[in-house]
Design goal:
The chain has a single domain, classed as paralog of FGE (formylglycine-generating enzyme). It is 11% helix and 22% strand. It is built from three helices and twelve strands. The two termini are 15 Å apart.
Length: 264
C-alpha cells in the first residue's frame, strides 16, 4: 500500500504544506484548489503567440514534486523495471554521451557527481512510465503553470522581475536540484525556471486550456508540452507561461520532468 506522510514546513516565504511520497522518496508541495490566470497576451518581446489569450482555469487541489526527478531516483526505476521501453515499445531514454546514467555490473547508476542532478535524456514516454511506477502522474500543463506562478499572474516563480541569481540559466552545465531556494514558487516548488525543461502530460493545442478537449488523452498522437526553460537558452524561455512543444519521442540533455498527484 502506498502511503503519503503529510507535514507542514515553515519557510521564510510562509507556510508550505508538504507531502513525503513513500515510493520514490520525493518531497511534494500542495497546490490548493481554485482559479488562476493561465497564459498571457502574447504581445511582449518575451512572449509567444501560443501563450495567448490569458484566461482563467479552475483546478482541484493537487500535489507536485518539490524538485525535478533525479538521476538517482530514475536509476532505481530502471533497475526495478529492467526495461528501456514502455508497454507499447516506446523508448524511455536516449542512450547517448549526454545521458547522466551509466551501466555498472548490469545495473544503472548515476554518473559520478550527478546523483542529485535532474534526470534528463528522458522521453515523454519515459517520464510517464516513471510517474506511473511511482504511483503518481505527470502534471497537466495547467497544473504546472499554476504551481509555478500562483494566482497573481507573475511572470517567474518568484515574481515579475528577471533575476539571474534565482535560477540556473545561461550556464555551462546543469546543477543539482533544489540549489536555488530563492527561486521557489508561491507553493514552495523549486527549479520551475531553468535547470531542466519539464515534461507535462498535455498535448500542445491552442488556448484556452480545456482538459476535456482531448489534450489530456495519453494515447493521442502529437507534440507534448514541456515547461520551465533549461540551463541553456534565453531568459524568455524560462517564464512561467512559455510553451516548449517537442515530439514525445524527443529526449535531450536539457529535458527532464517532475511528478504530480491529485489531492484526495
Amino acid at each position: 500500500m502506498r502511503r503519503y506522510l503529510l507535514g507542514v514546513a515553515a519557510m521564510s516565504m510562509g507556510l508550505w504544506t508538504v507531502a513525503l511520497h513513500a515510493d520514490d522518496g520525493a518531497e511534494m508541495v500542495l497546490v490548493p484548489a481554485g482559479p488562476f490566470t493561465m497564459g498571457g497576451e502574447g504581445r511582449g518581446i518575451d512572449e509567444d503567440r501560443a501563450e495567448a489569450p490569458a484566461h482563467q482555469v479552475d483546478l482541484p487541489a493537487f500535489y507536485l514534486d518539490k524538485c525535478e526527478v533525479t538521476t538517482a531516483q530514475y536509476a532505481v526505476f530502471l533497475n526495478t523495471t529492467d526495461s528501456l521501453v514502455d508497454g507499447q515499445g516506446h523508448p524511455l531514454i536516449w542512450e547517448s554521451p549526454y545521458l547522466p546514467l551509466e551501466r555498472h555490473d548490469g545495473q544503472w547508476r548515476p554518473k559520478a557527481g550527478r546523483e542529485q542532478h535532474p534526470m534528463v535524456c528522458v522521453t515523454w514516454y519515459g517520464a510517464m512510465a516513471y510517474a506511473q511506477w511511482a504511483g503518481k502522474r505527470l502534471p497537466t500543463e495547467a497544473e504546472w503553470e499554476k504551481a509555478a506562478r500562483g494566482t497573481d499572474g507573475r511572470k517567474f516563480p518568484w515574481g515579475n522581475d528577471f533575476d539571474p541569481g534565482r535560477f540556473w540559466l545561461g550556464q555551462d552545465e546543469m546543477h543539482p536540484v533544489g540549489t536555488k531556494p530563492a527561486g521557489a514558487s508561491p507553493y514552495g516548488a523549486l527549479d520551475m525556471a531553468g535547470n531542466a525543461w519539464e515534461w507535462t502530460s498535455s498535448l500542445f493545442l491552442s488556448y484556452p486550456y480545456d482538459a476535456r478537449d482531448g489534450r489530456e488523452d495519453p494515447g493521442a498522437p502529437g507534440r507534448r508540452v514541456a515547461r520551465g526553460g533549461s540551463w541553456v537558452g534565453e531568459p524568455y524561455i524560462a517564464t512561467a507561461t512559455y510553451r516548449f512543444r517537442p515530439e514525445p519521442e524527443f529526449a535531450h540533455a536539457y529535458l527532464g520532468f517532475r511528478c504530480a498527484k491529485s489531492a484526495e
